[in-house]
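User: Can you recover a sequence for this backbone? Please restate the input before giving your answer.

Assistant: Of course. Working from this structure:
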């Protein structure tokens, strides 16, 4: 039982090591949102195998209990938008895709996103290799559901995720058909066969007499093996019969000796 538990632990550790985890603190003081740098462009799934995916932890703003933060608390709704919406800080979709809702500043909220190309849940986020994805928040301190401007315009709170292409691994060439020589004639059509010379035709087609001799050689080898096997069987049977006859003679001799001894014992009495 302990061995199985250790194997499971090692498997889980190896799976965790194979995935990079990114952390993003979604608040206005994070320097990632500064306009004068490019930290808001994040590369994910770089160098991963097809079944490995990076993860992102979005950490919402949190305040200590007892502090007054009713009006100054940062609350955000983070959306997954198009490039046009990203550039204009304007959400034009009627039903935009929500990534995270940071509306409880007195609690430590964290949202985890896995950058995989499929989602096990309906309307889940899917990230195709080689594509870019845009996250923005247009909320303000007084209007959580605002969809124009907001923190996207005032604090540049938007991020681009560039999903790397799948890494292609070269597989060894196994059972790959060999390419035919360009000089070899094409026998698929009657016209091509009629244009062949006698020497070319002999090179492409095995003569019947060669096939016959080839089979006759196999037949000869098979016949010799059969004769040899039969001789071995006969020798084994002869050896078994001779050993059996010697055994019978020995038993018969023992019986005669025993009867002779018994007869002498009766006569002496």
């Amino acid at each position: 039982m302990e061995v199985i538990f250790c194997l499971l632990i090692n498997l889980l550790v190896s799976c965790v090591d194979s995935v990079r985890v990114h952390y993003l603190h979604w608040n206005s003081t994070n320097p990632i949102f500064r306009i004068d740098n490019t930290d808001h462009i994040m590369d994910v799934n770089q160098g991963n195998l097809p079944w490995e995916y990076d993860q992102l932890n979005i950490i919402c703003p949190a305040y200590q209990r007892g502090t007054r933060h009713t009006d100054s608390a940062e609350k955000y709704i983070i959306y997954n938008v198009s490039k046009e919406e990203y550039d204009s800080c304007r959400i034009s979709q009627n039903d935009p895709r929500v990534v995270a809702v940071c509306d409880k500043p007195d609690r430590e909220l964290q949202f985890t996103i896995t950058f995989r190309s499929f989602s096990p849940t309906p309307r889940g986020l899917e990230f195709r290799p080689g594509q870019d994805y845009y996250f923005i928040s247009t909320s303000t301190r007084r209007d959580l559901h605002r969809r124009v401007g907001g923190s996207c315009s005032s604090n540049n709170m938007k991020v681009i995720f560039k999903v790397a292409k799948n890494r292609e691994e070269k597989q060894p060439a196994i059972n790959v058909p060999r390419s035919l020589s360009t000089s070899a004639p094409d026998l698929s059509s009657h016209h091509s066969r009629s244009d062949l010379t006698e020497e070319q035709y002999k090179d492409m087609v095995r003569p019947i007499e060669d096939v016959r001799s080839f089979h006759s050689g196999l037949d000869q080898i098979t016949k010799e093996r059969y004769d040899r096997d039969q001789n071995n069987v006969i020798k084994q049977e002869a050896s078994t019969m001779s050993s059996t006859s010697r055994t019978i003679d020995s038993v018969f001799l023992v019986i005669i000796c025993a009867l002779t001894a018994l007869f002498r014992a009766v006569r002496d009495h």
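That completes the design. The CA atoms of residues 245 and 269 lie 37 Å apart.
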